[in-house]
Amino acid sequence: MGLSFEIQYKKGVENVVANTLSRKLDQQAENNSPKGLSQTKSDTSQCLLISHLQPKWIEELLASYEGDQKVLQATTMLSSNPDPTLNLSIQQGILRYKGKAWVGKNGMLRKKLVTTIHTSSLGGHSGVWATYQRLKPIFYCPAMMEQVNVVVQE
């Protein structure tokens, strides 16, 4: 194939790229002491960077809350009266009703979700009821059945 490469092994501290979050410093190399001597040093493991990826649909979900009066009422009610019987919660910035992600009124996310579920290979252009039943366990939005009806009829 004409590929030329070389595999190199790097031990402990020299291999700073591999497994940064869990690698511990090689105590013997750090101390430069023989195995028989015991020196105590504190663990100096550090976390230098943790990256966090957020899917685009979550960004769209959070953007759908802007200016939505029902979302505003729900979050206000939740902050003033955290009653578990309301079935409302906020997890990682996402408003949830009975554990389902609440989809706000603004933006095109409602239509995108219904279209994706309806036209997917698993959905197979099922009817209104089947599409609604696939969305219902995951997402909540007021008048979701009406949105499903509109998309399926298109």
Automatic annotation (TrEMBL):
Integrase zinc-binding domain location: 109-153
Any Pfam family the entry gives: Integrase_H2C2
InterPro entries (alphabetical): Integrase_H2C2
Name of the protein in its database record: Integrase zinc-binding domain-containing protein
